[in-house]
Amino acid sequence: MNSGLVNAIIAYIMWGVLPLYWKLFNDVPAGEILSHRVVWSFVFMGILVAVQRRWGDMKRIASSRTLLLPLAASGLLIAANWLIFIWAVNNGHVVETSLGYYLNPLLNVLLAVVFLREKPNRGQWLAIAIAGLAVLIIAIDYGRFPWVAISLAASFGLYGLAKKKIAQDASVGLLSETAVVLPVALGYWIYLAAAGKTTAWTLPATTFVELLLSGVVTALPLLFFARAAARMALSTLGFVQYIGPTIMLLLSIFIFKESVSPVLLVGFALIWTSLIVYAVASVRGTRLAKAS
Fold it and tell me: Does the N-terminal or the C-terminal CB of the chain have fewer CB atoms within 10 Å?
């Protein structure tokens, strides 16, 4: 549990500051950024798996339908999440991306209850209710249907469930996921070249090198997340996730200068209240379980 918590905190801090990185490529379309993200993630993970001498595991996955299909689903889910996130950040919707990842822990609890038969205690249900109220207030204040937020929450929530269901080494699993969408990314490169719409390859050298590093930037937090998912209850993992959107919200206010209403700040305060309630309830639940 402690190891899982450390891995989760590191992953969510990394994800929280990612908008700063994607803002470097404002002039590159989201789809093209995604294709580079997939290709260079595959290259980075391929090198890592080679160093770990785990290619035998990759062959086993490729020959097993029971392993390949869930990994293919998780690969498609995370690719969809990446695309929506990149587009939202580079089109001035950082506040809504933050809302999406505030929604995600609530969805994680629902998925954990329905699919994993996890049972939150009363204090944890209270925390969930407070967080739900906060998200409702934020959504109403936002003034329109937050499709970006809903899409981000759904895609990443289902991805977390898939990772929980797949008993696979983190690096091998991530390489398998990127391999699933690699042909699509390479096909998109060919299409852009044939249509004369390539943007990334015309970037200044330093900016292009930064784009090459998207593989590392993408893979590292996912590796930490995979390790956390294997060691923590999905519902608890979801609540630790509030670290990421909180950092994003602060970036949107102080760095990107997006407008934030007082109502949004009230919702933010309620979110953190729910976190405290959830943490206290979890500690008490653990102590009672040990005592019995």
Answer: C
